[in-house]
Every structure is written in C-alpha cells, then in structure tokens.
Design goal:
The protein has 92 residues and is mainly β. Helix content is 4%, strand content 40%. It has one helix and six strands. Strands 1, 2, 3, 4, 5 and 6 form a six-stranded mixed sheet that branches. Strand 3 and strand 4 form a beta hairpin. The chain is globular and about 45 Å long.
Length: 92
C-alpha cells in the first residue's frame, strides 16, 4: 500500500534547535511496508533525521505499535529504521 496523509498527526512539531519532532501514524499497512525506504517520501519537506514516528499498524484484528526514527532524508527519499515494537501484556 502507500502512505496516506489522513493517518498522520503531529504530536510534537518542535523545529527549534536540535529537538526532534514526534509524529503518530496509523495505517492498515504492515510495519514491513511502513519501514521500507521511500514510504514517507511525500513528507520529505517535513521530516528531519532524528524525528520520531509512532506507528500503529493493523493488518487484521490486532494493532501493533512500533517506534521508528527517521534515519535519512536525502534527495526526496525518506528512510526510517525498522523500529522497536512496543508490547504490553494483557493477562486477563
């Protein structure tokens, strides 16, 4: 699938100094699609190296939350890292 701007929200758009911005993104794409180089190319003018992307992906009935970091943004090509999956245990 492709990136959809309707799933993106700015959580902390801090473009002062060296602080990263934080974004939340929700999609029905898999995290493997989302962390593929070029997925966020339409945000090349917005994203900076070091910005954080909190991604919630859902390819079925279970949502998966992954924290990724913008690793590169050069010549219009944005690449985020594979990310760290955030997990929680629901023991009931």
């Amino acid at each position: 699938m492709a990136f959809s701007i309707t799933g993106l929200n700015s959580v902390s758009p801090n473009k002062r100094g060296n602080a990263p911005s934080i974004y939340a993104y929700k999609t029905t794409d898999s995290i493997a699609d989302v962390n593929t180089s070029g997925y966020f190319n339409s945000l090349a003018d917005t994203l900076e190296v070091g910005d954080l992307m909190y991604c919630v992906t859902s390819t079925g009935t279970t949502a998966v939350a992954t924290l990724t970091v913008v690793r590169s943004n050069a010549s219009g090509v944005v690449d985020v890292d594979n990310g760290t999956t955030l997990s929680a245990i629901d023991s009931d």
